[in-house]
Amino acid sequence: MRTRLARLLERRAQRARPFRRLTPTRIHTSMCQKDGLAELLISALAEASNNLPQLTTLKITTLNFTLSCNAGLPFWTDRLLGALMHDATSQFSHFRLAIAPGVPSSCLTTLLALQRAEEPEVTITFFETSADDLLTGLEEGRYDAGMSLRNAGAPAVKSQPLWVENVAVAVPLGSPLVAQAKITLAELLDYPVFRWPAETCLLLDQRLSFLPLSQQSIQHVTSFEMMALWVTAGYGVGLSAQSRIERAHAWGITMRPLSDGPYEIVTYLQRPHGRANVVSERFEHRAMLVARDSAACSNNP
User: Residues in domain LysR substrate-binding (predicted)?
Assistant: First the structure.
């Protein structure tokens, strides 16, 4: 995780543009194109003072604004500017993130660490909730963004796919299946199969429904830990994200890929349509950076 975060921060630093001094004629255009905060500042100043063209320097770094003015501006301009900056930035200094079951992963850890490194002034409030409540909360305005393993079917919610995990088989160390390099779904017919429904994979569920498995063969559990408990004890095999199974090797289970896949578990970033939030937009941009880095590492192991 540290290596991935360090790599992302280095790339961001290399792409950062140096501070440039702006002429008065370019200030208005640059500010309005930057984001809603700068547009709010420039509009209020335009209404409050005719000396706007005397503004000579602009620097915006995340939510921190640095403005330099000619000495001829009225004394109250600094007070107005300070008040406007406080009001404009305070409404964007909190970020409410809802997280559905199954989402936590090394990629999410990297994303949150990157967010904290680049925007330490933004306070994140986490909400652990169900996938259904996450969508309802986004529509009702209780959350600014959410992360789920279920693609949103609601038209009011934008769903952005991020990183992908492959489903694999969790096998107890004493099972005959350990001798196989890969396993097909058909080879699971003779074993009870433990499945955590939070790890949504529609293709996998469809294929399982076509197999002649009895209702007793597919057993749903409430967490990966419960699935690992049953598998380690020798009561059957499990289907879960490959990385989770690999991290649980010390518990007495091993991972075998599914040969008739790929069966993918996709993490989605979800945001409400039509409610722009600059902090959410920057968070989504960082999430896409982590997703691209994760895909590159998967393609080049």
Answer: 94-276
CA–CA distance, 133 with 114 (Å, rounded to integer): 27
- How many other CB atoms are there within 10 angstroms of residue 231's CB atom? 30
Residue 154 maps to which CATH number?
Answer: 3.40.190.10
Measured CA to CA, the distance from residue 143 to residue 140 in angstroms comes to 8
In degrees, rounded to 5, the angle at the alpha carbon of residue 42 between the alpha carbons of residues 40 and 45 is: 105
Which residues are CB-contacts of 17 (< 8 A; sequence separation ≥ 6)? none
The tokens for 65 are: 């604004």
CA distance 221 to 192: 12
The answer to whether residues 270 and 158 belong to one domain is yes
Rounded to 5 degrees, φ, ψ at 57 are -135, 140
Helix (H) or strand (E) holding 194: strand 193-195
| Amino acid in the structure at residue 50 | N
Angle between helices 106-118 and 2-15 in degrees, nearest 10: 40
Spatial contact of 138 and 270, defined as CB atoms under 8 Å apart: yes
Residues 74-127 have pLDDT tens digits of 444 455 455 444 444 445 588 999 999 999 888 999 999 999 999 999 999 999
Statement to judge: residues 118 and 104 lie in one domain: yes
